[in-house]
């Protein structure tokens, strides 16, 4: 299982890192976990 940072996920999904963080906080990206105040990891 690979872990990606918010920035890596943003590049992969072609959206901003801030948007990834917001979606993670809302629980709208399946398989993500929040690991810091302003970031989350996408487990792929």
pLDDT < 50 runs, ≥5 residues: none
> Number of helical runs?
2
End-to-end CA span: 6 Å
Q: What is the N-to-C order of secondary-structure elements (H for helix, E for strand)?
A: EHHEE
Name the helicity range: 25-40%
Major sheet details: 3 strands, antiparallel
Strand line-up across the major sheet: 1-3-2
From the alpha carbons, calculate the radius of gyration and give it in angstroms. 9 Å
- Which percent band covers the strand fraction? 25-35%
| Total count of strands | 3
Mean of residue pLDDT values: 78
Structural class: alpha+beta
Quickly count the domains: 1
| General shape | globular
Explain what you see:
This protein is an alpha+beta fold and 44 residues long. It has one domain (3-43). The protein contains 2 helices and 3 strands, in the order βααββ. It has a 3-stranded antiparallel beta sheet. The longest helix has 9 residues, at 17-25. The N and C termini lie close together (6 Å).
